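Schema walk-through. Below, the input block comes first and the output block second. Nothing else is stored per chain. Lengths vary across the set, and this one has 80 residues.
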Amino acid sequence: MVKKYYKVILEPQEEGGYTVTVPSLPGCISEGDTYDEAIANIKDAINLYLESLKADGLPIPEETHLIVELECLYEQIASA
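--- output ---
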């Protein structure tokens, strides 16, 4: 068994919970009501995605994304 690592993006939803995407695996998306559930669900989704690629004889993508947090300054507009 080969161990792979992929970066995921968790987006909090207004109604609660998280939507999770995997930039290196287009269309691989999941969700969960809690952080832990979202992580567990996306792990399952990634495994199914990779199994599908393997079954179709397609290559398994490598993680190539670099995610950087940037500080950006902006001028706040005074409210009336």
